[in-house]
Write a structure and sequence with these properties.
This protein has 323 residues and is an alpha+beta fold. The protein contains 7 helices and 16 strands. Helix 1 packs antiparallel against helix 2 and helix 3 packs parallel to helix 4. The longest helix is centred in the N-terminal third of the chain and has 14 residues.
Length: 323
């Protein structure tokens, strides 16, 4: 007759045996047996994996940044979006692999952000480790690679989202309305920071809508002068070469709500390169995303409006290896 033992009875037997051990050798051997039989009692639960797997299971709202590799654009998950703001996405190697399999598999929709609003979703074509022997991307010496996906996003897409929907009721602006909002900048705004109207005409200008739900949209006017020559003889009064102005709708038309300028020298503030605007935390007001070039790569920044000022709310270094 064979006697069937439960796991509980085996554990009790081992504990009784170890309790009666009288030699160092016996104690050492018992401890090894105990750790293999019931590691949970020794506190061996992988808390990092519990956290990572729970996050993936929730289907979080993820923010993606497009990156360039050769002749193709790829998308990399960089942050989690929630009502409390933006949190940089960090995971263990096991967690990234789990996200790759569960959340980034082929056919999953990824939605581009276009002028502050969601565009037409595109389906992921290939996840990072779909072909384990030939991953989409690699980085020498990286033990924990952040995955990327192949997805046919529209040309010019900088940010994309997953499991995210734009707030309803976003007010928009036509091209003519944005031109009207920026019409006073050359004569009334630029001279206050040392740029004459005729100088501003030499800058490259781009206008971007800043969408909101409960108030009129703003307009971000972005000016850049990339030339190496200067039209100002005095170094101390060298004019700005990069200029950002957020024009806010007021009672009597548009007025400057935020102005950022720099001459672009190493001793000055860095130029802010506009990436996109979007409502990251669902409060009905779009945040502004910029990149700043550094020796180690571009940092991504997000600015939010609080009362009448714009302040930094989040930043992410150019990290591809999560260590």
């Amino acid at each position: 007759m064979f006697r069937i033992f439960s796991l509980k009875s085996v554990r009790l037997s081992v504990k009784s045996l170890c309790a009666g051990a009288v030699t160092v050798l016996a104690i050492s051997g018992c401890e090894k047996v105990k750790s293999r039989l019931y590691p949970s009692e020794e506190g061996a639960v992988d808390q990092v994996w519990v956290r990572d797997s729970a996050l993936v299971a929730q289907g979080p709202r993820l923010l993606f940044r497009t990156i360039r590799k050769g002749d193709e654009n790829l998308a990399i998950p960089i942050a989690v979006l929630s009502k409390s703001g933006i949190r940089t996405l960090r995971m263990s190697k096991r967690g990234w692999n789990y996200l790759d399999i569960v959340g980034l598999n082929a056919g999953q929709p990824l939605t581009p952000i276009v002028d502050g609003a969601t565009g037409t979703p595109a389906k992921i074509r290939q996840r990072m480790w779909e072909n384990a022997s030939m991953p989409i991307d690699s980085l020498q010496g990286c033990p924990n690679m952040i995955p990327v996906v192949r997805v046919p996003l529209p040309t010019g897409t900088q940010l994309a989202v997953m499991n995210y929907a734009s707030p309803t009721g976003l007010k928009t602006l036509s091209a003519g309305e944005m031109e009207e909002a920026a019409s006073s900048i050359p004569q009334l705004v630029a001279p206050t920071v040392g740029v004459r109207a005729e100088q501003l005409a030499r800058f490259t200008r781009r206008l971007h809508p800043v969408l909101r739900v409960d108030e009129p949209p703003a307009v971000l006017a972005e000016y850049h002068d990339e030339r190496t020559d200067t039209d100002t003889s005095a170094v101390a009064t060298r004019r700005p070469r990069h200029l950002l102005i957020v024009m806010e709708k007021g009672v009597y038309g548009y007025r400057p709500g935020w102005v950022y300028h720099t001459a672009g020298r190493t001793t000055d503030r860095p130029p802010l390169r506009f990436v996109e605007s979007m409502d990251a935390d669902g409060d009905g007001q779009a945040e502004l995303f910029f990149e700043i070039d550094t020796p180690v790569g571009p940092y991504l920044f997000a600015f939010r409006k609080r009362l009448d000022s714009w302040t930094e709310m989040w930043k992410r270094p150019p990290v591809r290896c999560d260590v």
